[in-house]
Design brief:
Blueprint: H1 10-16, E1 46-51, H2 63-75, E2 80-86, E3 104-105, E4 108-109, H3 116-126, E5 130-136, E6 139-142, H4 149-152, E7 162-165, E8 168-171, E9 180-182, H5 188-204, E10 210-214, H6 227-237, E11 249-256, E12 262-266, H7 270-295, E13 300-306, H8 309-312, E14 348-352, H9 388-399, E15 405-410, H10 418-431, E16 434-438, H11 440-446, H12 449-457
Parallel strand pairs: 1-2, 1-16, 2-5, 5-10, 10-13, 13-14, 14-15, 15-16
Antiparallel strand pairs: 3-4, 6-9, 7-8, 11-12
Amino acid sequence: MNKFTTSVTALLTVLVLSMCSKPQATSFVAPSAQANTNPMGNTKGRNLLYFDATANFKRFSFQDSIKYYLAKSKDAGVTDVIVDVKPISGEVLYPSKIAPVMKEWGGFTKTEKFDLLSAFIEEAHKLGMTVHASTNIFVAGHNYFDRGPVYNDPAKKDWQSLNYTAEGMKPITTLKHKYSAMVNPALPEVQKYELSVLRELVSKYPKLDGVVLDRVRYDGIEADFSDASRKMFEQYIGKQVANFPADIYTYSKDRKSEDGKPVRVPGPLFKLWIEWRAKVIHDFIYEARAELKKINPKLIFGDYTGAWYPTYYEVGVNWASKEYDPSQTYSWATPNYKNFGYAEALDLYTTGSYYFEVDKKEAANIDVNTVNRSEAGQTRGTEDWYTVEGSAEMAMKITKGKVPVYAGLYVEQYKGHPEQFVKALKMCRAKSDGAMVFDIVHVINEGWWAELKRGLTE
């Protein structure tokens, strides 16, 4: 999710705090509505809590710890737990025959022999809680540790995103300010692999209630500018691109943005490029839903994205309803862009309302020079949707009631401000169908169990 990832040790916490098959994706035609009624049951008043894989690797390598923290979560008002089983390293936390299995992280090697996800499912179900498995999709390596399939598997090295930067074309593994080694979502071999991992997961755990996909997106506006992407884009528009990548955008030699970087200047095909990328993601979402529902029709099919919709086109994602037309409001959207909204494909949607400011009126106090907005697609601004209230309202508005929406918080943003955290939780519940909390590690570190309970139950 494009949530912040933290780690087990203090050193790793500092490092990762930034923190989260069709042969042709563009040929897939999605249905306009869901085939099944929502399996979530009563969607109002649910509260979701994430259990990050790496931040909690040591803690949840012991069954008694899983049991203990699930009970504390239940007491605090949590109804649903989201267990991260495929972090950004591309490894998984369950016995897989497809993906590499994470057995060590941060210098700690798991020795207790048990299946983590099975333990979560069994213990949570005893408490009447719902269990979702979270999987990071279009990422296959951790750039801070040079770890993961794009680093370790020669067959997957060329899957990594090729980014068009002001300094030229750069493989993402060379861009060490980015912690996620994202891959190219348009590559058929990437989609085939990720779908196989998802199918294995759902088949292996028939008692699993749901999945929540994360990072079903491009790295950012700079991605992906490989020759493969160019050819697929040309196929989509029905003609060759005369000047690639200049016809998509160029970098100004004279103009600088507020952060001192060269300004991107859109080319004649920029909007169509944005449209095509949204279709790539849209088609994958629908195909993943269809594949997993074949295995378990009752599976809750969910997705996480950031809440900053006005700029989320930069990562190739349109999480709105098809009934919402962004071209009426935003200059970057074509009239056709609305066709690639995918809210209708979801049973659950959780969005990162990752802002310290809670009420819309607090937007007037935002200092753009100090805000921490390092997530993909985030920009600096003072509009009211840069608040918990405003972003939650926007999410409800543009999803058009097609899917239950759970506004989410990044707990670390409220460090030193417990009352603001409580206030934000209550706002998530008031303005959406419930609250999502990322991550339990921060609740534990801050000792905010009482605050969590107040925010989720009062």
